[in-house]
Records
---
Amino acid sequence: MTIDFSLQWYVWILAALLVVCFLIQLFYWCYYYASILYDNKKRQKAQIPFATQTPPVSVIICSRFDGINIEKFLPAVLEQDYPSFEVIVVNDGSTYETNELIKSWQRVYPNLFITYLPENAQVLSRKKLDLTIGIKAAHNDLLLFVDADCCPISNNWISLMVRNFVDGKEFVLGYGGYQSAPGLLNHLITYDTFTIALQYMGFALHGKPYMGVGRNLAYRREMFFRKKGFASILHLQGGDDDLFVSMNANADNTRVEYNRDSKTLSLPKTSFREWLYQKRRHLSTSVHYARSTRFLIGTEVLSRFFFYASALALCFVAPPFFLVFVAVIYLLRLLTQLLVINFTASVLKERHFYLTVIVADILLPLISLFGMTVNGFARSSVYKWK
């Protein structure tokens, strides 16, 4: 019995496409997404300089009908181990009880301040106005931002973020994760957030910063006003974190902080519908990224799509012995992902991912594609800060 190793032309084309996409994927995972691992080795060898001074810091928290979370998470910010900092809560629509709670805390914490945005304020993006009010109220040049529904996991959060403000640095991009819980939805949310962090932190570590997250972000007050704040993106609902970073951050003025004690944790959505709305809101600003950023992100997504498409097609049209080749290519890519993801998860003190990788790697791009398609038929103004 002999095996016929002759193959049709379309099998060779599909195999070539699979290999090309595999190599592109390997490049992204080993060059960009593994950047934290490479940079962490430099830090362990003391090759990355950090500031030794502890300049005063203004922590700004915008609260929109978020009294319960303020009561729950604000103490973690107020109890930071840092010599000089103030906490400014911009109270947007919270209840009388929340105001009274904050005022009672002010008697214990003299560095706690509160300011307000009137409920009848007619603006497209309340979040940008809230942030601007908080920034104008700040007394210090270094600004550190966190959302009302999340908190730092350590009392060293401020000091770890601030140590990156060495000479010439104006932005510090931090990691904001979500609390882990059982269930597929929570695994998807935490995996999605984690891999997005691998992407924007990896790009930034290679001199291509394009976004940050408002859950854990720092920049200079002087730079904010020098760049005229959010003036160029006031016509958009979102963009107060990612687009502001995309337009003003660069290889020279940006640092990344990923120490496990520097991260913040947020409350995740508990329904798929709420999470999809959140995804759509975040994706609505991505079309405004720089062309080079969209090219880099799009190349990864397209190569992933054609990787799976060509592998699946080969399973149907290639002879059985050829399936070993497909399986080896797939397993090599999966092994690379698992190693990069879980070693980096250990650095960031994040949950580890195994079976989730197999499901989410296919499902999340489809969810994003659906969200962007729906966004194409929706007005950007429908995505309001709740």
---
Amino acid sequence: MSSAFVKRRVDLINDPVGRSLRLFSVPIALSFIINMIYSLVDRYYVSRLGDAAIAAIGSTDQIVFFLFTLVSGIAVGAGIIVSRRFGEGDAHGAQRTATQSLVGMALMAAVVTGLFYLAMPAIPVMMRMPPDVAVYSMDYLGMLLIGFTFNLTNFHIFSLARSTGNAMFPTVVLVLTVVLNAIIAPFLIFGIGPFPQLGMKGAGLATALAQMSGTVIAMTALLGGKTNLRLDFSDFQLDASLLMRVIRQGLPASIQMLSVSLNRAVIFSMVGAFGTSASAAYTLGLNVDMVAFMTVFAVGIAVQTAAGQNLGAGKVERVWQFFRSASLQLSVLMIILAIAVWLFGQNFVMAYTTSASTVAEATNYLHITVFGYVFFAVGLVAVRVISGAGASMLAMAITAGSLMGVQLPLCYILSHLTSLGVTGIWIGIPTGYAIFCLIAYAVMRKGRWLSASI
């Protein structure tokens, strides 16, 4: 990798707000797409092993996501603190936070992995997996866990790089790991050439090896000073007080991600009461939503980083400018995407199912939920501004409170206590986003988060 290329960063403190927001967000959005491809590669090869293998990879993904969420918050917390130190011009503080947090996260990930290995035999029973699915799932998960610490290390390094304004470096490393996984997976799964046929174990091992390779590339770049942030292990010893500050910032982020996952799981259970077609419709509709929201998540990370850096630099007005610019640009994009989904969403659904009832229900879902796109985007940007300032607990309370305390009850009431049926859930989703947006914006306007200390 070219040193100049991986060092390429966006000046979020001095460059024009709208332009810098776009330049920083695009590589992040691209990295989300690459992550999706990562998952699709495994699914493509594994599908050749049968339906049980497909079901196993889906179940395993849920387990890995839960584990990842438990530990990954420390990376988010470290990124928030590093962005503030970077804005303050405190290179030593940013470097020290990066080094301490990376070691702390690796140790925590290793402990979690070890404990989970011990708990693995109980997982199939807890998740009520059919016997054939359980065998495939345990084979795949056992190999994935080999690379779990490396996967979290990569995520942590990416968060640190983005906190300095460098979104290109994580994208480059992700591309390399996806290509490597795509190349070696078929050899290990199907036993091509001199390689043994490992089946699901081969799929998991290929992913783990790709993640390990990504860590080697990322750490080499960091230690060699080829990015905007250098690690320093000279006279290193763990600083418990600094790690606790990182955890205090990161733990609410983990809880926030878990609440989003739990929210979707509960909605799935509500939808399930209305039959298989409704469940399939929600699955397909949610996939469309997640593709539309990729840009929202990318801009959210950009705004969070910009808030931290500009508050550190004492440029409070630029934080508000980033919020306004992000809200305007995302609102325009979400309106365009909402129109596209309204007009062509049915075509996407029909590519995955021929069931007339599922197509009809999924189309109904999309025609209703698109009205929540703008609200979700603006609300998320407001929350990211608050978390970027260091008020992570407040950001978590807004998100978890809105989803679990407002959206879920609303979906239940409209679907189970009225004659709307499953359509009540579809109506409750965008209505919940609207309330989330109003709460987030109202809290942000009060400005109490500006006094958060990091």
---
Amino acid sequence: MSGMLFAKSILAGLALAAPAGPVGIMCVQRTLTRGRDHGLASGLGAAIGDTFFAFIAALGIAWVSDLLTTYQNDIYRYGGVLIFFMGIYSLFSKPKQDAPPATQTTGDVQDLEAKSRRAALLWADGVSALTLTVTNPASLLAFASVFAMLGVFIDPAGGVVLSLLGSGVVVGGCVWWLGVPMIAGTLRSKMGPQHLVWVNRLAGVILMVFGVISFWSSF
């Protein structure tokens, strides 16, 4: 029984992560233009967001569901604005360039500063992907539909079962969200600087379109 629930949870996490959307576009774009680690950070943030909706859907937490439904249009509106401006940022951003070799005297300082900037950017990538994921209330309905189809429903008192559900959804989401940048990362070495510029531009336009659609649908 536990093994079947875990398997169903993995399928649910994979099924809900797979459809292409703004987060998927952003994950691929960051992998190609910044590096595989930035795509992995974005994928992890998206997986955490999917897990949040999975718990709500499986537990049937009415007040959270009602809250998301009540403010659905506002969430779509603000989410659309966020996606649109992230598209503008992508449109005009430059691909990450390899740092020039540092001299012996300044190498340690430059290396420390580079690591600090990299860590901050990785955190920002994960948080922004998480934010975009949770500003899509449709994910809650999608998880509820998938769980109903798979026959998954959790008793709030069942802590062990709840843990199986959460870990299964995380595994399923990570298979997709961490697999995408791993695959896309193999293409990065084959693309020149000009190609990466156009990846940013294309991703920016697509994100802006998603943002406009999300904003418009709120009305």
---
Amino acid sequence: MTLQQLKYIIEVANRGSINEAAKRLFISQPTLSNAIKDLEEELQLAIFERSNKGISLSKEGVEFLSYARQVVEQAELLESRYLNKKPSPQYFSVSTQHYAFAVNAFVSLVQEYGQEEYELALRETKTYEIIEDVKSLRSEIGILYLNEFNGKVINKLLKESNLQFTSLFTAEPHIFISINNPLAKQPKVTIDQLDEYPYLSFDQGEYNSFHFAEEILSTLSHKKSIRVNDRATLFNLLIGLNGYTISTGVLSADLNGNEIIPVPLDIDETINVGWIAHKSTALSKLGTTYIEALHRAIAPSP
């Protein structure tokens, strides 16, 4: 086993493709494939699973990757300290539901640890894809919510994928609306009061099951309903159409301005927002730093 082979494994896992990894490593695809095959034979371990859909880490491969990343990181620290060698570009990815605090934490991460070269990814995406991203280690961390309604289904998927949910905070439901919405001055709003306003939600693609909805109360019917794919569009429609969406109430004026406000929703529900990661892998340095940044981003203002 060589350090170079470990770097090959990490690159293939990051890309999800031997062909793409080979391009990034400036080697031929057969050379890379043979190096991985030799390592698997030496260890008597199937690090990757191969199928018609491509290549992905096996369950044992996920654990191996965690150790490989630690070894390579330590080796690069030694090279940087004693050989004055420039460290490899940093790589980190997080997949999340559409939360402003997740973006704020990502900004803090880049500002604190961004080197001259880095390759980072922030994927605001669908609930099912968040779980798949973390399962395959396309992302190290995922951010989503659980509640009484979706908990059984989501927790079953997490268990099957060897993923663990860690709570960040529990929130009471709020609606997000424009400051010019007639409901903006209400101390609380009821479901009935929302009946005449357009309901905005994030599209979940082929997994549009109620249990994967990013908004609670997903089984309720609405006279006016619009699905969107990104947060900017949703916020524009909140303002332009006097629409509303249901979320945690945690907003960022720095990112979203002051034209959108949260108003408490008068309903007996809670939203448990947290992060998911593999049970069998330790977080990387950037992963640990990002979690710390998340806690700072959701902390109440002094």
